[in-house]
Amino acid sequence: MKQSFIIGKILSNALLVSTVATVIHVHASDNHYHDFLNRDIDGIHDILKKTGNVVLKPFDSLLASSKKEQSVKIGYYLQDPSVLKEIGILTTTVKRSKFGGPVLEDKDLCSIYSPSTDADGNFVYSKDQNKKFDYSSVFATVRLTMNMCRDDLTFLLSKDPKNKLLSNTITHWDSRSYGKLYLTAEAGMDANAFYNRNDQTRELKFFTFPDDNGTLIHSCRSSEIVAHEAGHSILDILHPEYFSTDSLETGAFHEAYGDLTAMFWTLYQPKLCSLLVSKTSGDLHQREGNFLAAVAEQFGSALGMPNGLRNDDDNVTLQQVEPEVHAVSSVFTGAMYDIFASAYAESIQNIPDQEGKANQLYYVGQHFRQMTLQSIISLENPAPNFSDLAFSLLSVSKEWSESSTASPLDKLNWSQYINDEFNKRSILVNNNAGLSLTLKGDKRVCHTLPNNLSNLI
Ligand SMILES: [Zn+2]
Questions:
Q1: Interior CA angle at 452 toward 448 and 457, to 5°?
Q2: How far apart are CA 30 and CA 132, in angstroms?
Q3: What residues have their beta carbon closer than 5 A to ion ligand 1?
Q4: Spatial distance between the Cα atoms of 292 and 308, rounded to a whole number of angstroms
Q5: Where are the domains positioned within the chain?
Q6: Which of 115, 186, 424, 455 has its C-alpha lying 20 to 30 A from 312's C-alpha?
Q7: H-helix or E-strand containing 311?
Q8: Which pLDDT score is estimated for 359?
Q9: Are 334 and 311 in contact (CB under 8 A)?
Q10: Euclidean distance between the first and the last CA atom of the chain, given in angstroms as a whole number
Q11: CB 252 within 8 A of CB 258
Q12: Calpha distance 87→297 (Å, rounded)
């Protein structure tokens, strides 16, 4: 057993060296690399094309244009406001109002307030134009998060065109039968944000609260919080049955998927990959400056939590947490974070320079995000526990690594990391073998419970 493991590792490393060499070669001979790190996500498909990497058709281009739609630029927060003040710009298509100008609405999303546009007919404001900026930023962040997932579905189907579960998922996604998602950036005073769905509507709401100094904290200004809530809405499209489950672990997975979506949001932005590597030297277990692991820093800080409202780099086990969805979610998220950190560390062993590490962070992040999505879609159990989810991830990692078309990223030691990290947290990586915790307390996702800070967002 031990020998085959060692051989596997050496093989994997050998393959990895060839990837690294390719990556360095491409970028050493190609000035697009600097562009890549400095461009907004909006231009990333062009850059990937020029560097010879896989190009996905941008989701926006799949939307049929019509006279009812209008292309605009929309400003959004790149990360949490306490991490980075810089804004990103999304170019996307929105509807026209009946008076002709653009409004913050498209086929999937509808902002309940649509500001008047700037002098150029766009939704790009300075951050002191609070209400205008906040509503635009939420719209753009949710739009990009949905694009990220929809593009991944296209990629996964191209990898496995006969996969019925995947094609059914895409058909369901594109049918939009589940209705639009309504966005409220400023829903009132509360230290919270949530996704909700009932018979009439699906909605995301973000709230505002004062910190100890009386400074108002707006949950809508953290792209991690917005991505977390968008993650709930996406999982509810992929698996609507998870939303109304009585299973604590399935409910907790809803929360974990929100935090993983926030993590994937950061890894989806080349600028943020570059900034993270510059702050951590690529050590994803470093606490200082690690805005990938820390979730909702500004929000957490206002509540006296210096490492974020939650921190993904968490080693708690199932036996150590309160039976509440957010608390239990930390067990799953912690395992996923460590799996990613290990795969990333393995992938940069032979990359000395910061730019190469940032580039690799983007690609390993994309790979793990797609692997995670495939594992979720592969599940047919209406209320999977953590063991089911872990087993599905393990199955996908094995299938991809054994495929005749396996890439060096597929050949990283994912299976070993998945087994190690879930077992470490008392989650057996088997079908139906997990601890089945009985639900106690409030199972609603993203709902505030009094006097318990871990129940927020
Ligand atoms: Zn949540």
A1: 40
A2: 39
A3: 255, 258, 445-446
A4: 10
A5: 59-152+175-231
A6: 186
A7: strand 310-311
A8: 97
A9: no
A10: 44
A11: no
A12: 17
